[in-house]
Amino acid sequence: MKTLYTIGDSWTYGDELPNPKEQSWPTLLSREFDCELINRGECGSSNDWVFRKTVEWISEQKSFDDVIVVVAWSEPNRREENYQF
Fold first, then answer.
1. SS3 for the chain, per residue?
2. Which residues, in sequence order, are CB contacts of 15 under 8 Å at separation 6+?
3. pLDDT tens digits for 29-62?
């Protein structure tokens, strides 16, 4: 079975859609490709988080046969050091 892994911010998550699990662009793309979806979209995520989580996920995979990875970067200024925690 093919796998589509998507990661990004609120746009990837499907924020503001009535039903993000059914209407987000990753869901529609996975239907088009007829594959399993792993959508790691998180509202407010930084590019640093996106990079780190993508590398972590990739390093855990045993094989990349039938895997599609789509990284949706956020705006350039959305960096972890720009936020006060």
1. CCEEEEEECHHHHCCCCCCHHHHCHHHHHHHHHCCEEEEEECCCCCHHHHHHHHHHHHHHCCCCCCEEEEECCCCCCCCHHHCCC
2. 43
3. 999 999 999 999 999 999 999 999 999 999 999 9
Both structure tokens of 1 = 């079975």
The reply to whether the predicted model has a pTM over 0.85 is: yes
Beta bridge partners of 41: 8
Position with higher pLDDT, 60 vs 82? 60
